[in-house]
Amino acid sequence: MLGNKFYPSDNNPETDPLLILFGFVGSNERVMNKYRECWKGFNIFLFTPPCDMTIYLMRVGCRKFNKELNKYFKNNPNASKIIYIHGLSIGASFVSGFLKQLELYKNGKFCYILPYIKGIVMDSGLVLTHNDAITGFKSAIRAQIGTFGNVIQHVVPMFKPFIKYFCKHDVPYLFKNNYHFLVIYSPCDQYFPGASENLITRLNDTDRISNNNDRIIVEKKFYSKHIEHLKSNKTEYIDSIINFINITNK
């Protein structure tokens, strides 16, 4: 299990931009190195949830991580004020909790970091409704644990109140502050079908209601399995990230 790690840039770590990478459950060093390679020239903070159900502990995890992030900027006054976020599968669900804690912790002690965020990449993740979340968690548990997962999947509905709270009180922080998005997904995602499309729809609806024309939303569709888009479409995947950086870092 990777937990929280920091990887300095190979170029100029004192002044290079920062990526915050939210890994997926079951991430290992070899797999996450492939995602790190997509962000050459970036310092990288890696945050990996230990299991699916820790989504309910994200407030604690994100608060601890945000303290590390605050320390990074306080100890490095010359650090670049450019941040990108990349959320993978269940790790994408931690992005909204991360943003919420940045804004609210100790009356906004960390909110100075929010304007540094240039863009958010979501890959195969984030559900907006509790029903989609429960369906996804059940599928993930069955896939990860096998036969025993068929038994313990039945306890997932016990967490419904926590999931509903997350969808109502944490998810809305994604739609604040006019963040730009690159949404990478597959229409045949077996864990969270339709979740990414719903995210794009909600982003567009939010901008339409507020008459906002400034947000950049890039949709990248693949037909590979859940969280296998980089593995199956490496060149196109990396190019989509590079293009997203080019159009948002201005």
TrEMBL record:
Write down the superkingdom of origin.
Eukaryota
Record's protein name:
Uncharacterized protein
Which species is this UniProt entry from? Dictyostelium discoideum
Highest classification ranks of the organism: Eukaryota, Amoebozoa, Evosea, Eumycetozoa, Dictyostelia
